[in-house]
Amino acid sequence: MNLNLKNPIAFIDLETTGINVAKDRIVEICIVKVSPNGDEEVKTFRVNPGMPIPAQSSAIHGIKDEDVKDEPSFKELGKTIAKYLEGCDLAGYNSNRFDFPLLAEEFLRADIDFDMKKRKFVDVQTIFHKMEQRTLTAAYRFYCNKELEGAHGAEADTKATYEVLKSQLDKYDNLENDIDYLAKFSSQNKNADFAGFIIIDEKGIERFNFGKNKGKTVEEVLNAQPGYYGWVMNSDFPLYTKKILTEIKLRGFNK
């Protein structure tokens, strides 16, 4: 089944130096861009992360320091990637919890204004877990009846994710072929900050989703605990989380 698209959708997979959204960096990004007419275009970029790639990460994706030492940094590539993604909704595998938050961090570090709020996000892993509870390799086998060659390579994983989503739409009659629907269906929570440290409740109010203030509204915590904002800003939280927290704080000043 082909995707029913109003906008182009970009399937994205990142290979990185690690799994810490705030600290780690991209070493490879693959984008499969699908147009409403069904045309597909694939772009893969190797990226110099500006930091050593740990051996345990290289063991997973096969990319070592020497493979990227002559590649451009994300700051050099960022504008090209942002332009390529212009007007696209975004999709991936485990992307709402990892790829998209980390990509947002890289854009912020590069001082590139890439507005994530205007986009729909489809996480194929969430759909898969809600339906079958498996991994990407098993998902590819289950839905597409194929073995995933080159797993943990950005291009192989990205193409497999795109194929899995199309097969999910073929398999499940109750899944609507509509990106708005799929974005809502593949969301675990409505996040304010992508990484899920701040979520939005059913009334549209931002609440902390971690630590001692979990479940409390952000505004009430900032009012009752004036030092909490400074603690977050000086701690190892993602830049995007800090950006959203600052916006909420400034909004409170204007009330």
How is this structure best described in words?
- With 255 residues, the chain is α/β, with parallel strands linked by helices.
- The protein has eleven helices and seven strands.
- The strands form two sheets. It has a five-stranded mixed β-sheet with strand order 3-2-1-4-5. A two-stranded antiparallel ribbon has the order 6-7.
- Strand 2 and strand 3 form a beta hairpin.
- Helix 6 packs across helix 7 and helix 9 crosses helix 10.
- The longest helix has 18 residues.
- The protein is globular, with a radius of gyration of 19 Å.
- The termini are far apart.
- The mean pLDDT is 92.
Short note summarizing the structure:
The chain is an alpha/beta fold. It has helices at residues 55-61, 65-68, 74-84, 95-109, 124-131, 136-144, 154-171, 179-185, 218-224, 226-233, 239-253; strands at residues 9-16, 26-34, 40-46, 89-92, 121-123, 198-200, 206-208.
Distinctive features:
single chain; globular; five-stranded mixed beta sheet; alpha/beta; 11 helices; two-stranded antiparallel sheet; 2 domains; 7 strands; Nucleotidyltransferase, domain 5; 255 residues
Layout of helices and strands, plus pairs?
Elements: E1 9-16, E2 26-34, E3 40-46, H1 55-61, H2 65-68, H3 74-84, E4 89-92, H4 95-109, E5 121-123, H5 124-131, H6 136-144, H7 154-171, H8 179-185, E6 198-200, E7 206-208, H9 218-224, H10 226-233, H11 239-253
Parallel strand pairs: 1-4, 4-5
Antiparallel strand pairs: 1-2, 2-3, 6-7
Helix pairs in contact: 6-7, 9-10
- The tally of strands reads 7
* CATH architectural arrangement of the largest domain: 2-Layer Sandwich
Main sheet? 5 strands, mixed
Assign a percent range to the helix content: 40-55%
Span of the ends, CA to CA: 49 Å
Rounded to an integer in angstroms, the radius of gyration calculated over CA atoms is 19 Å
Shape: globular
